[in-house]
């Protein structure tokens, strides 16, 4: 009996022992080591591109035993710590980073502990922010991540801001307007003229000392003594030079000498070595053709307004307005070494003609409007301003402005004289902002219209010559801040506050019967190719076109003036007949006549066509150093082709001439620095080419047809 009972207890113990589970941890009887994630999806939402966002996921232990969980995921999601300890019956946290790109993305977080694996979906949206630019000075614009839009709001009074004008600094917002303190541009150098441009900031130029009347003296500025006169280098020409007699400087005095053999009677040019006297004759080596600095295809034909510039040059950039047969028209910009900067298509593909260029923009004439394009970057359109006259809201006639009727102030503001074509003819002088083209000032509406000429004197104002009534007028300006709520120049918009008045004051009795021509230098003007006039209106002398044995018909432009304003140069068609009968085209020659502006008397005449036997055409001229005039002209060859020449003329003598290579058709040219830029067609292809001149183009006075290579029609002292 006892033995049977013992076997029963033994069987019970074995069953109990065999059925016991003590868990994964041998030290914790009855505990289970597992986990579960608290969420199936971790959503990071919208996140800015290039930033990271952290989210946390809670892991819950499903038993009383602790457990270590391995966490793994792929980019652009990252686990901060890959091993997470979850305490028994407790929780643990896995931190995940999302590195946002610019698109929606999904990923997966894999969690493993022992034989347990769980997967969690990861999702996020990378958002590329918009470039938010405020529409006003004292406003801020920020990108709203939730809406994906820019949200603009005003800045509080006193907030720091950047004034719209570079002539102000330390800007603070006041009632929504950025108000700054005037910028000081004084460099404490009495030999510089310091000013401030709203678009460029501080601008410094050397003091232009008065040009002495003595050609053997030159004005220089000394920091301690100011402007003074010093002698030019000995043997510098001060008049005509030949091997029979030469006027040269010695110790500050102009003297006439008989040149000895070996005397340099003609300077070297890019195609020919200098000439030297021998037995009373100027002996020169044979001349060759000019060699171009560069030659670049334009891709189309250059276009220009009649009498307007074909090329402009400003700050090392050459501009041309070009039209292709099927490609429309565009503004082309090249470096002075011939590399293409940009080709900016015009919005409607239509024709535009060049007017002027500055750091503020390249101004072109569009149908019934002025436009300005950026001089750098891609040459984008900066502003477009309508020129339409309006009377009761109805446009009348086609507005006209253009070459010679547009000038730029030192700040780049656009001064333009606009006429309408409908009868009765009416005109008005307008100043537009360099920044956005809105009107800053306007003159009264006047009777009459047509070709007129503007010239700007930075220290005084602007001069306007209207040939139809012979008036020479002057205007000055003091501009307020622009206030404009529309884009129309004329009509009610001009009556709004903030538009200044341009008052035109007549200077003297005017110059009736003149051509559309105006040049300005050192307080003197050449008006209408008829008279020399001082800036107060007094006539110094009528230009003498009747002297000599030929009949001269003056050309309107170019008219050039030396920096001193004492000598002017103009061109005319010459006919050898004096009996009053007309010359045929083949008999007409082009003559350069130089004048004294003291009395208008003729100083010299030089035939500028390269060959005295062949008809030709005059294209461009400019003042160069050493009192030289550079001229580009061509001749019609017997076979119908044309040959072009660069010529140098000084003191009534043609010093030399160099041929451009090949047979070419010249559209236009421009002197800038020590280069001649030419738009021409060679072998049926329109090209932009540049040639060395050997001398630098003058920058003072009125050295070009539009005073500067940039076409600004502004006199430089």
From TrEMBL:
- By its UniProt entry, which InterPro entries does this protein fall under? ECM-enzyme_regulator, Ig-like_fold, S_mold_repeat
Gene3D superfamilies referenced in this protein's UniProt entry, alphabetically:
Immunoglobulins
- Domain of life here? Bacteria
Question: What is the protein name given in its UniProt record?
Answer: Tenascin-X
**What organism does the record attribute this protein to?**
Corallococcus interemptor
């Amino acid at each position: 009996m006892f033995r049977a009972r013992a076997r029963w207890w033994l069987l019970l113990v074995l069953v109990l022992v065999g059925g016991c589970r003590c868990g994964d941890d041998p030290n914790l009887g009855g505990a289970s080591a597992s986990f579960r994630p608290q969420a199936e999806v971790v959503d990071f939402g919208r996140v800015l591109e290039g930033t990271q966002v952290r989210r946390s996921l809670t892991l819950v232990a499903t038993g009383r035993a602790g457990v270590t969980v391995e966490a793994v995921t792929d980019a652009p999601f990252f686990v901060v710590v890959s091993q997470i300890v979850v305490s028994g019956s407790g929780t643990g946290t896995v931190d995940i980073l999302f590195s946002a790109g610019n698109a929606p993305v999904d990923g997966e977080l894999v969690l493993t502990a022992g034989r347990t694996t769980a997967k969690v979906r990861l999702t996020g949206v990378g958002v590329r922010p918009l470039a938010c630019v405020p529409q006003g000075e004292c406003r801020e614009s920020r990108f709203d991540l939730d809406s994906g839009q820019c949200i603009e709001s005003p800045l509080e009074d006193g907030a720091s801001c950047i004034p719209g004008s570079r002539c102000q600094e330390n800007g603070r917002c006041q009632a929504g307007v950025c108000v700054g303190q005037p910028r000081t541009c004084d460099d404490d150098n009495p030999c510089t003229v310091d000013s401030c441009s709203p678009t460029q900031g501080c601008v410094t130029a050397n003091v232009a000392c008065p040009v002495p009347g003595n050609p053997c003296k030159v004005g220089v500025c000394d920091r301690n003594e100011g402007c003074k006169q010093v002698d030019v280098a000995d043997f510098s020409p001060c008049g005509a030079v030949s091997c029979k007699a030469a006027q040269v400087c010695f110790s500050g005095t102009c003297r006439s000498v008989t040149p000895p053999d070996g005397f340099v009677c003609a300077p070297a040019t890019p195609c020919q070595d200098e000439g030297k006297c021998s037995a009373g004759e100027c002996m020169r080596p044979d001349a060759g053709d000019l060699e171009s600095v560069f030659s670049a295809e334009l891709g189309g034909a250059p276009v220009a307004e009649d009498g307007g510039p074909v090329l402009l040059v400003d700050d090392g950039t050459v501009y041309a307005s070009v039209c292709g047969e099927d490609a429309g028209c565009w503004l082309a910009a090249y470096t002075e070494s011939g590399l293409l900067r940009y080709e900016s298509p015009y919005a409607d593909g239509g024709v535009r003609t060049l007017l002027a260029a500055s750091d503020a923009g390249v101004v072109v004439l569009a149908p019934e409007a002025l436009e300005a394009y950026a001089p750098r970057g891609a040459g984008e359109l900066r502003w477009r301003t309508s020129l339409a006259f309006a009377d009761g809201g109805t446009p009348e006639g086609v507005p006209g402005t253009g070459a010679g009727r547009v000038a730029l102030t030192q700040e780049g503001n656009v001064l333009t004289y606009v006429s309408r074509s409908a009868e009765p003819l009416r005109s008005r002088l307008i100043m537009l902002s360099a920044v956005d083209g809105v009107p800053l000032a306007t003159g009264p509406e006047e009777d009459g219209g047509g070709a007129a000429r503007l010239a700007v004197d930075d220290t005084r104002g602007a001069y306007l010559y209207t040939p139809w009534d012979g008036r020479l007028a002057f205007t000055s300006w003091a501009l307020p801040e622009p206030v404009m709520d529309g884009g129309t120049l004329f009509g009610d918009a001009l009556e709004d506050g903030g538009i200044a008045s341009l008052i035109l004051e007549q200077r003297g009795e005017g110059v009736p019967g003149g051509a559309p021509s105006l040049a300005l230098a050192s307080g003197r003007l050449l008006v209408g190719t008829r008279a020399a006039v001082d800036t107060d209106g007094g006539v110094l002398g009528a230009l003498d076109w009747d002297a000599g044995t030929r009949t001269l018909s003056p050309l309107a432009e170019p008219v050039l003036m030396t920096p001193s304003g004492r000598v002017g140069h103009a061109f005319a068609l010459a006919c050898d007949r004096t009996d009053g009968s007309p010359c045929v085209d083949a008999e007409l020659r082009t003559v350069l006549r130089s004048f004294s502006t003291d009395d208008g008397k003729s100083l010299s005449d030089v035939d500028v066509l390269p060959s005295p036997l062949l008809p030709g055409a005059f294209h461009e001229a400019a003042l160069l150093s050493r009192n030289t005039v550079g001229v580009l002209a061509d001749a019609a060859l017997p076979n119908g082709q044309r040959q072009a020449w660069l010529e140098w003329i000084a003191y009534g003598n043609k010093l030399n001439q160099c041929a451009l290579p090949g047979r070419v058709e010249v559209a236009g040219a421009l002197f800038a620095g020590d280069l001649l830029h030419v738009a021409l067609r060679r072998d049926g292809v329109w090209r932009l080419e540049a040639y060395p001149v050997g001398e630098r183009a003058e920058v003072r006075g009125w050295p070009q047809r539009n005073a500067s290579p940039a076409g600004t029609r502004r006199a430089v002292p």
